[in-house]
Amino acid sequence: MATPHINAEMGDFADTVLMPGDPLRAKYIADTYLENVRQVNDVRNMFGYTGTYKGREISVMGHGMGIPSVSIYAKELITDYGVKSLIRVGSCGAVRDDVNVRDVVIGMGASTDSKVNRMRFNDHDFAAIADFELTQHAVAAAKAKNVPVKVGNIFSADLFYNPQTEMAEMLKRYGIVGVEMEAAGLYGVAAEFGARAMTICTVSDHILKGDSLSSADRQTTFDDMMLIALDTVLRDDAARA
Fold first, then answer.
1. 195 secondary structure, DSSP code
2. Where does a purine D-ribonucleoside bind (predicted)?
3. Which of 57, 116, 187, 241 has the highest count of CB atoms within 10 angstroms of its CB?
4. Which CATH number fits domain 16-240: 3.40.50.1580, 3.40.50.280, 3.30.1360.10, 3.30.10.20?
5. What is the pLDDT of residues 19-74, one digit of tens each?
6. Cα 55 vs. chain centroid, distance in angstroms?
7. 71 is in an annotated binding site
8. 196 labelled ligand-binding
9. What angle do helix axes 132-144 and 215-240 make, rounded to 10 degrees?
10. Residue 122: is it exposed, middle or buried by C-beta count within 10 angstroms (0-12/13-18/19+)?
11. 25 annotated binding-site participant
């Protein structure tokens, strides 16, 4: 049954969906890593695909930019299509001295300047956290591939161009491992509707040092992260079998 934002049919999505922000990135993931791929969504060009990875059915779909966008797609995937696990695969900025470009960051928790989780939590503070088992398997997958990984609290910002220039130093002081725009909303939706969620990002730039990756380097680090994310799904299946 189609929703206002997804025109797939029930059963078109696997129980686990990998979610990059860019719908063209979703197409790249499907074309590069999945077999027997079929497109299941094209509303607003927010492409969604389902295929298999090493025999395991997995879906991938874009979620757009920002908490409002990811919240729409995550909610409908969970409540209308029965998706059980959502893994955001994206990029982030760094503020800490020990986090560098090319590192992989896993958001164990997600702070935010958005009010969305207070709205859903009766104006109280909600601790937006990732699913522990998915996080544990992602860390193991990264270590197995010898990929540097930092695990901790990330910050989901409502504004990409933030006029509060002192924010970066404050985030560094509080030990934030990465700055992005979606995880806190994704974790809130998953908690509200009984699903599991995790965010894994590559560090594409360092906000305070001024370091950034070229487009070619961004692709290489994204591919490293994707192999970790896919291995996470397989490790999670094995642990839950």
1. -
2. 5, 180-182, 204-205
3. 187
4. 3.40.50.1580
5. 999 999 999 999 999 999 999 999 999 999 999 999 999 999 999 999 999 999 99
6. 23
7. no
8. no
9. 120
10. exposed
11. yes
